[in-house]
Amino acid sequence: MLDNVDPFIGTAATDLPRADGLAATWWWPKPQVGNTHPGATSPLGMVSACPYSGAYPTGYGRYAKNTEGVPEEMFDRLKASGFTHFQQSGTGAIRKYYNYVRVTPMTQPLDDLGQSWSLEDERAEPGYYAANLDTGVRCEITVGEKVAVHRYTFPDHHSARVVIDLSCGGLAIDLGRTVPLRAQAESMGHGRAQGTVVMEGIPLSVYLEVDSPGWRQMLWYDRRLIAGGTRLDFDSIRHTTLRPFGMLFMGPARAGQTIEVRMGFSLRGCDQARENLHSACGTGTPAFEAVRARTRASWRDHLGRVQVDGGTPARRTVMATALYHSLIKPCIADDESPNWPGPGPYAFDICTMWDIYKTQMPLLSAIAPDRYGALLESLIRVCEEEGNFPIGYRMARGADRFFRQASALAHTALADAHALNRPGIDWTWALVHMVDDLRRLYGEDFWEHGVVHPITHTLDLSYAHHCTATVARALGDHRLADDLDRRSRDWVNAFDPATGLLRDSEFYEGGKWNYSFRLLHDMRGRIELAGGDRAFVAMLDRFFGYGAAPVRQPGRCPDPAEMAAGYALNRFEGLNNEPDMEVPWAYHYAGRPDRTAEVINSALTWQFGTGPGGLPGNDDSGGLSAWYVWASLGLFPVAGQNLFLVNTPAFERAALRVEGGEFVIETSGHRDGPIGVDGVDRDPAPQYVQSATLNGRPLHGTHLSAADVHHGGRLHLRLGPEPSTWGHGIRPPSLSDSHPKETR
């Protein structure tokens, strides 16, 4: 898988072939750009490094901020003013976070710092990025979990320099700048320096070593060198008083001479930053190739946890890159929390749970269980220290928690982990936090009235009550479990029985149709409320555009009337956004997995491709890419229910390396379909599951327990060109299966 990854996928505006058939009826309301970056990363590591133009939202690229349609270009070409550290991946609406500690190789005077130069001959692979600046400097970057190593090859010049700007942060858009509150920088001689900047309330420390024999090193402030100075201290910085500052290494360069910059980072001070550097790079010797090789080996290991056979080269490239993007975030740094003392993992860049809890977190649980456990441990610690489970959490103190997106989403991950007997978590203590968190914010109104607006939070909270009830019952607290279970049935209060849809309310990035078909814990009751299988399937068919005419997608700067008309279609958002990404599998609960196969086949064919424009929308920290991975495997995790739904895979054979060994999905009768970038001019015919076996025994239902997958085994699917009766009779489990319907 490693050699098939293309980190440039998703870095540019969406550029896919015009969809045909079902996919042509879907409407994309959100930004048509992946918002990924090609910079150097390590699997779930703390540090990333990337060329910096100041563009939205990662700091890389050419695009301005946008929330709808095709992004406008901020620059007419790819360029960079240097290379920064800590970037988002695939998100939108971030504005000012990260892109700290800019390193700029220059042959120009210090006065030119901040000028951008064209990027040429870009190259990227997992853990490595390289490009030429049009100044003639060849730039290479690699990273480890807590370190970055830069290597610059200079042209012949009498006064080359490497400039470290500690004041840099954020983006070059309105309200996009991050200004340090406090800072200190120290030049220690012999190619060594260190500094700390307090960004968004978090102290970020860097310790660096520069191999530049015969070069001078100095501090600088406001683009002026400080001759003989060894330390800068800023006790209070404001937007109006900020002047750039940092360190500089300067001297003559021969053509082809390389300068290596090794940087260790920590959120717990310069001493720990130095320890992190020396642990990864040793002391005083070139480390670029060693760090690159270790990170590449780590990526090979992580990407090797999913293997696929068959498919076109394009489909394998998209699959490998989707898996890569799924393993960049969240950042998990052991023993680095700036907010609480003591050892233990610190997870940040959870941006946001709303984006990743349905797809990416179950993927991490399956193939990276150790890091997944660290993520959950960190979430519990956040709840202890800050009073709630976060919906979004960054390397920032008390900012932008995204509560209007959703409520109580951590409960789904905790319930799944408990069902799998994950070690290392004090479940009695975790349950205390799960219960307490249900009462906060929107939860208080839900507790008192059984319904809350925005109405989607009613669904979130009823679902979280169900998840918490399963943990409480397993721990033997039946009284608590019964009370939580009763409240979990209040999902019904969110729906209008007259329409079978959610009640009128405000909706975050969608409408009532986008949210009305979520996979609830009581899908049997949900389908009955809609009028039964036939009525429910008819509503889904309308939602997915069966029989509808193709629609026109929003272009650049769409006007409000155009957007309102699009929302009025009440149509599937087509993987361009999160609200309805699990809805294709709702057909399973009505006995129509053939419809799921048709929708997923169209999505995989028309909405993902190779090249920079290969994503249909924001990748959102890997949430969209994880969707692609699961859909291609023919599985979909129902987060919080210890459940997987089964569908037609995109590959002849796939294997997941899981805790119990290997889970294999294999097919017979499989016929590879093309992917959109290969130039198909019609909707390729889907294939349908005719029968299935699990570990050699017939599987008549369309679902597996998560334990079936995590313990390893073999799922065999016999495919054919026509729908079958497989999965029509035995439905995935619902709360109504074993309990009478209740409301209050």
From TrEMBL:
InterPro entries: 6-hairpin_glycosidase_sf (IPR008928), GH-type_carb-bd (IPR014718), GH92_N (IPR041371), Glyco_hydro_92 (IPR012939), PNGase (IPR050883). Residues 720-744 are annotated as: Disordered. GO terms for molecular function: carbohydrate binding; peptide-N4-(N-acetyl-beta-glucosaminyl)asparagine amidase activity. It comes from the Bacteria. Residues 272-720 form the Glycosyl hydrolase family domain. GO terms for biological process: carbohydrate metabolic process; glycoprotein catabolic process. Pfam families: Glyco_hydro_92, Glyco_hydro_92N. Keywords: Hydrolase. Residues 5-266 form the Glycosyl hydrolase family 92 N-terminal domain. GO terms for cellular component: cytosol. PANTHER family: PEPTIDE N-GLYCANASE PNGASE -RELATED, PUTATIVE-RELATED. This is Glycoside hydrolase.
